[in-house]
């Protein structure tokens, strides 16, 4: 039997593969930028054309039949092979422009001040930094023409190379003005929820009070009703509010190092706690030479910074004990 891959048949297959991967018409529709009803209809067209069911539609989940699972595996492998070939064919263009998707707060607070050194050392690499914090997978990176990324999260990636290059430590920070206006704030037991500044989106999937809850739990302090604090969707915004004397932010050492060293921010409780998240460098399974160069440069910069950061944190702790 001869089968022609018409545009309609290809659309049906694409919708079916995404639906099985997510076990959801709604999530597949979000990826494909169409409506949930359109995806459901396309899958139904495919089932009618094959004259067999491919999905068992339960109230809470879509489950592929044995035939549906077989087809989904073949489609996924085929799409990956096509995607890999297209990436190889576009390698020359990628070598001209290396697009790095980077968590915005890290890009502004840590990466950008160091980029001048990179450009001087590697004038042949046209590095383009894009501030983003949405979740990534290989398909999303290929669709957005992004060949590498930096994310602050737990590093749970299925189809990308994810290499941790910098750990992170959490430490509360406030301006000297704020601390002078709140002399009652002597120990962590004096913290109150309305004083706190929150980054409510530290990484995709994290809770809105992840970092404060994590720090408080490790130092043995309890601040009820954390939601009474002030909320931001970027760590840099919370830090900016702290610099303006509006409260106490949960600082990430990579982002508050310069402000602490210059005295613009103060760490009233010098008990840094290791964050659950780290900074990860993400790339495809076959990165270009320029991507590998960027990764190596980032790792070297992180190693230098880590030594300076650890010395600062030790110095802060020593100063507190000396008081």
UniProtKB/TrEMBL annotation:
<dbReference type="InterPro" id="IPR058163">
    <property type="entry name" value="LysR-type_TF_proteobact-type"/>
</dbReference>
<dbReference type="GO" id="GO:0003677">
    <property type="term" value="F:DNA binding"/>
</dbReference>
<dbReference type="Pfam" id="PF00126">
    <property type="entry name" value="HTH_1"/>
</dbReference>
<dbReference type="GO" id="GO:0003700">
    <property type="term" value="F:DNA-binding transcription factor activity"/>
</dbReference>
<dbReference type="InterPro" id="IPR000847">
    <property type="entry name" value="LysR_HTH_N"/>
</dbReference>
<dbReference type="InterPro" id="IPR036390">
    <property type="entry name" value="WH_DNA-bd_sf"/>
</dbReference>
<keyword id="KW-0804">Transcription</keyword>
<keyword id="KW-0805">Transcription regulation</keyword>
<feature type="domain" description="HTH lysR-type">
    <location>
        <begin position="10"/>
        <end position="65"/>
    </location>
</feature>
<keyword id="KW-0614">Plasmid</keyword>
<dbReference type="Pfam" id="PF03466">
    <property type="entry name" value="LysR_substrate"/>
</dbReference>
<keyword id="KW-0238">DNA-binding</keyword>
<dbReference type="InterPro" id="IPR005119">
    <property type="entry name" value="LysR_subst-bd"/>
</dbReference>
<protein>
    <submittedName>
        <fullName>Transcriptional regulator, LysR family</fullName>
    </submittedName>
</protein>
<comment type="similarity">
    <text>Belongs to the LysR transcriptional regulatory family.</text>
</comment>
<dbReference type="InterPro" id="IPR036388">
    <property type="entry name" value="WH-like_DNA-bd_sf"/>
</dbReference>
